[in-house]
Amino acid sequence: MTPDQIRLLQQSWAKVVPIADTAADMFYTKLFEMNPALQGLFVSYTAEQQRSKLLAMLGNAIGNLNNVEAIVPAVQALGQRHAKYGVRDRDYGTVAGALLWTLEQGLGAAWNNELKDAWVAVYTVLSGAMIDAAKTKAA
Ligand code: HEM
Predict the structure, then answer these.
(1) What is the pLDDT of residue 68?
(2) Contact partners, residue 19, CB within 8 Å, separation at least 6
(3) How far is the CA of 79 from the centre of ligand 1 (A)?
(4) Ligand 1 center from residue 50 Cα (angstroms)
(5) Rounded to whole angstroms, how far apart are CA atoms 12 and 7?
(6) Which residues have C-beta within 8 Å of that of residue 124, sequence separation ≥ 6?
(7) Residue nearest to atom 40 of ligand 1 (CA)
(8) For position 17, which CATH number holds?
(9) Which atom of ligand 1 lies closest to the CA of 57?
(10) Domain with 92 in it
């Protein structure tokens, strides 16, 4: 991730925060539309708890992009917990699709290819670390 991408991500996240509740609802609706079977994995938390955990984790990641090492252990542990939730590698692609769609809807005119590339870059780093950690644990 380049410094420009980090700046873009932090600026766009600041625009998501005020609409976070709506954005999270849109995200889960889209996700379950893309793959209804995934709904069966979300069993332990209420929608509201899940929403706030997801936003806190993403907010923490976006806030620490200048210092990625600081969040690596937390992201690895998150990946290992996701394996236990029943999340498979391919589900990360579905979540990426729902996330990008939500950002595009939520950010409207502020959305563009440069921003999309920056979000793809951060999601690739996070999901890659989660998937690798899940495999390490499984091995
Ligand atoms: C970068 C990617 C992701 C991030 C940052 C993320 C973040 C989180 C966080 C913070 C939690 C709260 C529980 C915990 O901390 O262990 C959680 C739970 C969960 N996530 Fe994710 N997640 C990601 C990808 C995915 C993917 C690809 C799926 C696949 C459908 C998924 C499904 C779930 C499920 C099923 C739970 C537990 C819900 C429950 O038991 O009710 N997540 N996620």
Answers:
(1) 81
(2) 106
(3) 8
(4) 8
(5) 9
(6) none
(7) 44
(8) 1.10.490.10
(9) 10
(10) 3-138
Cα separation of 29 and 21, whole Å? 12
Distance 83 CA to ligand 1 centre (A): 10
Pair 99, 45: CB distance under 8 Å: no
Can you tell me the distance from the alpha carbon of 110 to that of 42, in angstroms, rounded to the nearest whole number?
31
Q: What is the pLDDT of residue 55?
A: 86
Look at residue 47 in the predicted model and tell me its pLDDT. Answer: 84
Chunked mean pLDDT (size 10), the chain, 139 residues: 92 92 92 97 89 86 87 93 95 97 94 96 94 83
What's the domain count of the chain? 1
**How many whole angstroms separate alpha carbon 26 and alpha carbon 70?**
30
Q: For a pocket test of ligand 1, which of 28, 54, 71 has the largest count of ligand atoms closer than 8 A to its C-beta?
A: 54
Predicted pLDDT at 138: 62
Give residue 121's Cα distance to chain centre.
11
User: Any residues with Cβ below 6 Å from ligand 1, and which?
Assistant: 38, 41-45, 50, 53-54, 57-58, 78, 81-82, 85, 87, 91-92, 95, 123, 126-127
